[in-house]
C-alpha cells in the first residue's frame, strides 16, 4: 500500500495511457496500483504480466527517484482492485474512449472507491459534465487529460464543471505538481486547450501543403526552428502582449482579406486595440505589466530564449540541429 504521507493512487485501465500514468507516479517515487479491468473470456494474466514488465523496464531506464525504498507497482485484475480502490485518494480512469465502457467502469469505481476519492477521467473525447452524470455524486468527477507519452509530457489539462468540488480540483492539481507535472485548469469545453490549439495549427499546415505554399519538410522546419522555441518561452497570449496587440490586429485584417474568415481576429483583440490594452507598450493587455518591472521581465525572457536555443543545439552541427524526415511521394493521378 502507498505510504500514508502521500495520496493513494489507483489507475484503472492498463493500456498505454494507464501504463504511462503509473510510470509517472513510480518515477516520482510513489506507489501506484494499476488495475486491468478489461472483461474478456480469455486469460488476462499474461497481459498484466507483460504490462508490469513494460512499466518496470521503462522505470529502470529512468534516473533513480531518490533516497529511500523503491516505489511499488501493483498490477491486478478487477476483483483484486476492490481493496485498493476502497482506500484510494485519487482514481485515474484510463479505459478506451467508448461511452458504454466509460459508463460501466465509472459506475463500478463510483460504487467501490471511497466517497472522499477524486475520480479523474483521462478522456480526450467526453466532457466532464457528460461523465459526471454517470456517477451518483458528480462533484467528485474531473477530467485529467494527460498528453502522450504521459510519463514524459509535463502538462496535464484538468477540466472541471460548475458542479465540480473545488477542493477535489485543488487536491488533484496539488498531487500532479507534487510528481513534477504542470496542471492547468479549464472549463468543460471540447478540445480542452492544447488539442484545440494544435488542431488549428495542424490543419493550417496541411492546408499550406495542399495549396503548394511550401513543402511538408519546410513547414515542419519552420515550426521546429521558429514557432516551437518562441512558444516554449512565451505562450501565445503572452506573445501578443510582447509584440503588441496592434500587430495581431492589423495582421489578422490583412490575412482575413487574403485567405478567409478563419484569420479574422476575435472580438477581444479588437476590444483591447480600441481600449489601448496592447500589451507591454500600454502596461496592460492579456496580462498587467508594472512599468518598473518591464526591463527585468524582458531581459529574463531573452535569457530563457538563449538558454533554450543553446540546449537545443548543444552537441549538434548547425545543419543537423533541426533534422528532417523523407517526404512522402505524391499520390499517383
Automatic annotation (TrEMBL):
<keyword id="KW-0963">Cytoplasm</keyword>
<dbReference type="InterPro" id="IPR022694">
    <property type="entry name" value="3-OHacyl-CoA_DH"/>
</dbReference>
<feature type="domain" description="3-hydroxyacyl-CoA dehydrogenase NAD binding">
    <location>
        <begin position="9"/>
        <end position="186"/>
    </location>
</feature>
<keyword id="KW-0560">Oxidoreductase</keyword>
<dbReference type="InterPro" id="IPR006108">
    <property type="entry name" value="3HC_DH_C"/>
</dbReference>
<feature type="domain" description="3-hydroxyacyl-CoA dehydrogenase C-terminal">
    <location>
        <begin position="191"/>
        <end position="289"/>
    </location>
</feature>
<dbReference type="Pfam" id="PF00725">
    <property type="entry name" value="3HCDH"/>
</dbReference>
<dbReference type="Pfam" id="PF02737">
    <property type="entry name" value="3HCDH_N"/>
</dbReference>
<comment type="subunit">
    <text>Homodimer.</text>
</comment>
<keyword id="KW-0597">Phosphoprotein</keyword>
<protein>
    <recommendedName>
        <fullName>L-gulonate 3-dehydrogenase</fullName>
        <ecNumber>1.1.1.45</ecNumber>
    </recommendedName>
</protein>
<comment type="pathway">
    <text>Lipid metabolism; butanoate metabolism.</text>
</comment>
<dbReference type="InterPro" id="IPR013328">
    <property type="entry name" value="6PGD_dom2"/>
</dbReference>
<dbReference type="InterPro" id="IPR008927">
    <property type="entry name" value="6-PGluconate_DH-like_C_sf"/>
</dbReference>
<comment type="similarity">
    <text>Belongs to the 3-hydroxyacyl-CoA dehydrogenase family.</text>
</comment>
<dbReference type="InterPro" id="IPR036291">
    <property type="entry name" value="NAD(P)-bd_dom_sf"/>
</dbReference>
<keyword id="KW-0520">NAD</keyword>
<dbReference type="InterPro" id="IPR006176">
    <property type="entry name" value="3-OHacyl-CoA_DH_NAD-bd"/>
</dbReference>
Amino acid at each position: 500500500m502507498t505510504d500514508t504521507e502521500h495520496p493513494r493512487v489507483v489507475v484503472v485501465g492498463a493500456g498505454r495511457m494507464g501504463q504511462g500514468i503509473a510510470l509517472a507516479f513510480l518515477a516520482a517515487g510513489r506507489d501506484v496500483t494499476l488495475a486491468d479491468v478489461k472483461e474478456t473470456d480469455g486469460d488476462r494474466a499474461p497481459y498484466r504480466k507483460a504490462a508490469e514488465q513494460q512499466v518496470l523496464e521503462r522505470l529502470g531506464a529512468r534516473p533513480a527517484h531518490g533516497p529511500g525504498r523503491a516505489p511499488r507497482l501493483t498490477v491486478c485484475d478487477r476483483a483484486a482492485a476492490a481493496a485498493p480502490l476502497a482506500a484510494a485518494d485519487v482514481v485515474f480512469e484510463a479505459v478506451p474512449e467508448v461511452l458504454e465502457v466509460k459508463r460501466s467502469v465509472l459506475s463500478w469505481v463510483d460504487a467501490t472507491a471511497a466517497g472522499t476519492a477524486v475520480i479523474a477521467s483521462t478522456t480526450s473525447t467526453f466532457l466532464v459534465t457528460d461523465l459526471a452524470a454517470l456517477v451518483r455524486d458528480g462533484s467528485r468527477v474531473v477530467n485529467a487529460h494527460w498528453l502522450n507519452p504521459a510519463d514524459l509530457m509535463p502538462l496535464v489539462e484538468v477540466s472541471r464543471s460548475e458542479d465540480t468540488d473545488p477542493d477535489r480540483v485543488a487536491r488533484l492539481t496539488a498531487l500532479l505538481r507534487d510528481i513534477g507535472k504542470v496542471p492547468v485548469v479549464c472549463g468543460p469545453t471540447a478540445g480542452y486547450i492544447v488539442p484545440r490549439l494544435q488542431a488549428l495549427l495542424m490543419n493550417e499546415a496541411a492546408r499550406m501543403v495542399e495549396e503548394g505554399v511550401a513543402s511538408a519538410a519546410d513547414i515542419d522546419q519552420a515550426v521546429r526552428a521558429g514557432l516551437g522555441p518562441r512558444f516554449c518561452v512565451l505562450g501565445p497570449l503572452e506573445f501578443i502582449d510582447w509584440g503588441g496587440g496592434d500587430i495581431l490586429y492589423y495582421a489578422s485584417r490583412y490575412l482575413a482579406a487574403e485567405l478567409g474568415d478563419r484569420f479574422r481576429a476575435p472580438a477581444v483583440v479588437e476590444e483591447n486595440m480600441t481600449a489601448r490594452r496592447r500589451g507591454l507598450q500600454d502596461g496592460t493587455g492579456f496580462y498587467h505589466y508594472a512599468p518598473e518591472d518591464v526591463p527585468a521581465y524582458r531581459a529574463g525572457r531573452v535569457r530563457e530564449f538563449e538558454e533554450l536555443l543553446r540546449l537545443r543545439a548543444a552537441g549538434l552541427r548547425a545543419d543537423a540541429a533541426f533534422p528532417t524526415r523523407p517526404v512522402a511521394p505524391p499520390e499517383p493521378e
